[in-house]
Protein: Deferrochelatase
Organism: Streptomyces bikiniensis
Amino acid sequence: MSERDNLEISRRRLLGTVGAVGAAGLVVGAAGGAGISAAVSGDGTASANGAGGPAALTTVGSTEVMFHGKHQAGITTPLQSRGHLVAFDLVPGAGRKEAVALMRRWSATAKTLMAGKAPGQDTGVALDAGPSSLTVTFGFGRTFFDRTGLAARRPAGLDPLPAFSSDALDPRRSEGDLWVQIGADDALVAFHALRAVQKDAGDAARVRWQMNGFNRSAGATARPMTARNLMGQVDGTRNPRPTEPDFDRRIFVPAGATGAEEWMAGGSYAVVRRIRMLLDDWEKLPLGAQEKVIGRRKSDGAPLTGGTETTELDLDKRGPDGRTVIPDNAHARISAPEQNGGAAMLRRPFSFHDGIGPDGTPDAGLLFICWQADPLRGFVPVQRKLDRGDALSPFIRHEASGLFAVPGGPAEGEYVGQRLLEA
């Protein structure tokens, strides 16, 4: 038996009990290829693999996300506790041929890793772990099309984002030919995938920038809850939900797309922004002032107009002083879909902390990632309005930005982007 076989078995052996559980199954092939399930016993852990067998993986370790599907994984997949974002540029002289070979390698590696297996020449970093909800998502930047001779197939959705007055963007940490989003519920599994993707780039592409993020770990709360950001605010309450009848229309490019966007059917556009939070300034605000900036209670995310987290904002309600209870410049008011012609985007961020600067301020904030069928109808109108008067603006700084076309999920036997690169 080869070393590779041993590595693969070592990583997979802990999943051996799942087949015995039968009806529950390990993977649920949900629409879009982002279903997550696990076979667990009554105490919340997978059953033991017989007498004297190895201990079974916990629920967190055993969850597996489908690689193949209508949409790529990592878009509607529930928030993961660890993430890496990395952009690559093709090396000088590399073109379409090299891009095809690279996407074949990356797709094969992603499929292997997402199944909880170890690729060839494995580092052993995640040797004892299961899939841990690993997702690897691939996208193409605007410059990719010029460098591969595919400018005629660059969709209008990749037109450059407009400049915003609050931007302080570092071009060295923005854009890129290729973009990879990695997420997992285990930090070592996520790093393992990052290392594999970097190694697979070989001589075809070089890292342009890379960012690391995190979220609350699965199971850290007594019940599933909307995540909080590093300001302590509940963040993501009004996200579109897959159960809504118009979700696909707003988030994914339709199957009937034609022209330059035909290959994007089932895909989505990702806007990526590194947003630094000026936490020292924010934390000086008293609680009541913080809540007026956001327009929601900090304790539970409910609107200042009352109710629970999911209660609709009453934007017309006024207090005894005659002023609107939710201030006119409150973040929740300005970003509300009804204030932006129904513009909607699926936010799926990670928090980040990259150390403390010489002046003692934390380099921390949000790796903002939003998904939409058309960024000019999703992100752009909302950000334009926020740029003109959001009360949150003095406490944040947009430091990097990227826009990427993320094609639909690959069918069995396909690699990501094949419908573009081999048309």
The chain is about 20% helix and 15% strand. The CA atoms of residues 88 and 208 lie 5 Å apart.
